[in-house]
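Worked example

This section walks through a single chain of length 484. The input is the sequence exactly as stored; nothing has been trimmed or padded.
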Amino acid sequence: MAKASKSSKTTKAAPAHYSFFQSVERNFDKAASFTDIKDKGILEQIKACNSIYSMKFPVKIDNKVEVIEAYRVQHSHHKLPVKGGIRFSMDVNQDEVMALAALMTYKCAIVNVPFGGAKGGIKINPKSLSEYDLEKITRRYTAELVKKNFIGPGIDVPAPDYGTGPREMSWIVDTYMSLRPGEIDAAGCVTGKPVTQGGVRGRTEATGLGVYFGVREMCNDADVMKKMNMTVGMADKKVVVQGLGNVGYHAAKYFMEGGASVIALAEYEGAIYNPKGLDVEAVMAFRKKTGSILNFPGAKNLKKSAEALELACDILVPAALENVINGENAPRIKARIVAEAANGPLTPDADEILNKKGTVVIPDMYINAGGVTVSYFEWLKNLSHVRYGRMEKRYSENMNSSILGSIESLTGKKVTAAEKKIILHGPDEVDLVHSGLEDTMIGSYHEIRDVWMKNKKVNDMRSAAFVSAINKVGVSYMELGIFP
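Given that input, the structure is written out below as tokens.
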């Protein structure tokens, strides 16, 4: 029998591999012991996926019948309706949809939105299909959901996700209405719709704006900044954003407008870097013109998009797909704050490595909750059948005009035309949506912060977010009275 070599004895064990859903469960288990819930049965109920609908249906594409694989997972029924996006991607599988549905449960709880978590997915490449074929697939998927009672304003409310947008949501609501004629709240069966179809102004930029609000609140937190040996505020912060889809673009835009310096932007074709900062709008215009961000004037090209993740910066915003930061590249991450704008961009191994380095990871289930928050506002708008601001805009403007007139009369001074325009402005729908989102992100940050700072056993922000979410969901289950 051959003897083992010395090198074989010292070989390091390969890092554990976790599926996406197992990673979510692992984070749940890590936080569960710090919660107020001591009954293991309740914790198991919170963790479990309540309903999983796996389907296959035929669609005729180019005179050929294709069998389409699709899913809808309802993770938690502690509150109804459940809520979560639908993604179109060849990477869609049951494990991924289960994980994303679970994260939606915790995300809704964190931002105090009264929904259970859900997620959907269709295994297709939307870029390889015509608009006509995409519409056929979307409408058939919606019909399958209706058949099994997996969609409805009081049951399950989908939304856009990776590979989908307002167009697909308009197909869904139209199909639902045709199959549920006369249902007065039918428009609330899905969110992320075009404004003309019952959507809400401010939904497009909601997730990216929420990322900015959440990071800004941390940077304005004097105690946390002191602990991290960083200055308070956004003015001197250097930001790297990976992914220039809807979320990444808007996050980068608002960081730039908020005074931070966006030094690098990364997309699938590569990345660009300028230590003095990039003009996000100019980069997007350049990409629209040339088809790529590479060779942007004044910026250095990075051939591999992943190289941008390892640049020295204050804030790193991975806004693409999951698992882009893992056990292999995490040791080389130099950012002080990582804001998970995408769903699950860090593996559990990466999480542990960054925590040990003192890097603060703002978890996805809080920092990218802007989308579901504004989806909630859209759902409320659909149920109330009135546009935000319609009832109070003119009243506010008239009242502001009266107050301003009185002040000018008493002081004998007149404000400028520009100042008058700002003072008299009554809130439009988008103003109210942005205000509600800002308040939600600020309030939720401080709820997580309190757990993080006050419980010495909770040493990272992800665990603190899970503790906050689990406590809220657990209370809901116990108040339902389903446990003896």
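What to look for: Residues 47-197 form a domain with the Rossmann fold fold (CATH 3.40.50.10860).
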